[in-house]
Fold this sequence. Notes:
The protein is an all-alpha fold. The protein has helices spanning 2-26, 35-55, 65-84, 94-119, 128-147, 158-181.
Amino acid sequence: MSDTKQQFDTVIALCKGIYEKKLRDYGASWRIMRPSSITDQLLIKAKRIRSIEIKKQSLINEGITPEFIGLVNYGVIGLIQLALGFADGVDITAARALELYDKYITETKELMYAKNHDYDEAWRLMRVSSYTDLILTKLNRIKEIENNEGQVEISEGIDANYQDIINYALFGLIKLTCDEEN
């Protein structure tokens, strides 16, 4: 598990680094996004990953790693937006956006550690393409929940699905970056 924790910290640092740079460029401009728009942004990224996996080619000179980073960061943004609601403009500082990032990525990472204990690191046996399919499944579930105005009878809510998306994307990043180094 210590290797897993180190790998998680490595890929989270990669994602947070991009988040910080984008905050410097744009501020927290994403504060205007409604949760459904964030879900659609996540969908675009996951569909691009799947398209590249199937076609084995990208016409834009970027692979799937930046898309997995985007899934992590937009997933965290989704959690922030669920907690704060959307705004008509940028209403938080970059420092506050970073504090919130740390809060929600830590909660999500702790969830992964608990699940990882119970599932005995089964994710390591999976293919990256399976993470993509699971992310797309989660996004379809979120869209259904959004269409039902957030109401569920027995299922987890949008926040839990965002956390699962973040963790599947982190698994993908570990497989694509950390595991290649070994």
